[in-house]
Amino acid sequence: xxxxxxxxxxxxxxxxxxxxxxxxxxxxxxxxxxxxxxxxxxxxxxxxxxxxxxxxxxxxxxxxxxxxxxxxxxxxxxxxxxxxxxxxxxxxxxxxxxxxxxxxxxxxxxxxxxxxxxxxxxxxxxxxxxxxxxxxxxxxxxxxxxxxxxxx
Length: 152
Prior knowledge:
flat
């Protein structure tokens, strides 16, 4: 018996393997879309927030900025998983890479700024990626509840 097998047996070490981070078939760009819409909503709220100069205003502004930045990072996280783990059958790898690169940069810019233009562009970039994703499955992409989900 080797030292390795003794250690493995003694500490109950088992070898595990997987071919992807999540079970196949669970990929869906909707989580990135919701995160992008949250960024957009926080920009809307930040821009609409009346500066009263008091602690309550500072607290609310701080919370809005925190949520905006957390969801911009979440959008980046979800996009990276989709880009790296999904196979993208029947697509041009360079085109897909360019679209993800642009979306990831937009998410970073949304963290750095309070720009409705950048936030809307991020939502649009995620929608474009979603359309390509669903086309690889033979489905036409639509998000009929986007406006309702985003709210007023």
